[in-house]
Amino acid sequence: MTTIYDIAKKTGFSITTVSRALNNYSDVSEKTKKKILDAVEEMGYYPNSIARSLTTKKSWTIGIIFSEDLGIGVKHPFFNAVIEAFKQAVEKYGYDIIFLSKRIGGENKSYVDHAKYRGVDGVAIFSTHFDDEEVNKLIDSPLPSVVFDLHSHKTSVVYSNNQHGSELAVEHLLQLGHRRIAHIHGHFNTFAGQERYKGFMAAMASNNQGIPEDYIVNGHYFSHEGGYRAMQKLLSLQQPPTAVVVSGDIMAIGAINAIQNQGLRVPEDISIIGFDDIEFAKYVTPALTTVKQDMELLGESAAEALLKQINEKSKVYSALTIPVELIVRSSTATVRE
Q1: Do 90 and 36 sit in the same domain of this protein?
Q2: Is 327 helix (H, G, I), strand (E, B) or coil?
Q3: How far apart are CA 171 and CA 123, in angstroms?
Q4: 168 and 280 in a common domain
Q5: Is 37 in the same domain as 84?
Q6: Which helix (H) or strand (E) covers residue 224, if one does?
Q7: What is the tens place of the pLDDT at every residue in 87-124?
Q8: Are strands 103-104 and 216-218 parallel, antiparallel or unpaired?
Q9: Residues sharing a CB contact under 8 Å with residue 69, sequence separation 6 or more, in sequence order
Q10: Domain count, the chain
Q11: pLDDT digits (tens, 9 = 90+) for 211-234
């Protein structure tokens, strides 16, 4: 069986350096870490978990909390992609992940209690709303944590530049000649819903564009049905918009379906822009113009932030904003008045 001594011999580094690289300590250079991790993968090194726990005082397990109101859980392609990137990143350093619920053995328990029961070294939190009391208790606890898409001054947070994404969408539509631009926003209980709405409003204001009150429609929790119903409201107006910025790709697909079911065409009659760039966005008809979130970088950055806390044995506040970009496909076109 391959041991840490074999890894040290192959790479030429000391056992201490190999150990610190495997634990993602910041004093080991990225070049050194890569060489060691490549050797680990090549030689199939799998340290004994019990021995590691006794030596390092770690469980080598990270908990994942998923608290959302979308109703589709990790089946949502955005969350699925980010969690997979996070999983791959922590696995490189020997960590397993487990999902933590508010139940243990049929009994209701808090997230904090479940994390203590499992003995996890840290927790990654996916929460779509601000007011989950149990999530906030965990954030307030000494346990290392990182949060996706939920702002906090008490732990590390990682999120996309949601406001700028909406600004890019508005600017694209203005360049195409659109002036009657509506917005289907996500629920304001969500950080993403609020931030994308703020970006839309700011971009319209900075370009001196008026927004009729009924051009702002709530798509609720980013579902296909929410986008479909919101678009129906916009289509029922005496003067419907010529373009719509939608706060999520799944909602945008719902909006496209509503338009098509009314006998109208996208983008010839109404242009649509989504947000996320889920894998399916390029395959719908028409292919969806959207704001791309870098899901891989989101997951990797969150892993790095959490492992830093675990290794330094301290709760750290940090906020990392991941850039976004506009992906232009077929669902937007020059306005036809």
Answers
A1: no
A2: strand
A3: 38
A4: yes
A5: no
A6: helix 224-235
A7: 999 998 889 999 988 766 666 778 888 888 888 999 99
A8: unpaired
A9: 128, 129, 187, 189, 190, 221
A10: 3
A11: 999 999 999 988 999 999 999 999
What's the helix, strand, coil split of the chain in %, to 5? 45, 20, 35
pLDDT in tens, 251-300: 999 999 999 999 999 999 999 999 999 999 999 999 999 999 999 999 99
* Beta pairing, strands 145-148 & 122-127: parallel
- Residue 29, both tokens: 């250079």
**Amino acid identity, position 270:** I
Q: Which two tokens stand for residue 149?
A: 């898409």
Put residue 263 in one of left, alpha, beta given phi > 0 → left and psi -120 to 50 → alpha. Answer: left
Residues near 84 by beta carbon (within 8 Å), at least 6 away in sequence: 299
Please give the structure tokens belonging to residue 169.
């969408």
CA distance linking residue 330 with residue 132, whole number of Å: 39
Q: Which domain holds residue 30?
A: 4-47
Name the one residue in this structure whose structure tokens are 């990137």.
Answer: 85
**Domain harbouring 240, CATH code:** 3.40.50.2300
CATH code of residue 43? 1.10.260.40
Give this prediction's pTM. Answer: 0.81
End-to-end CA distance of the chain: 72
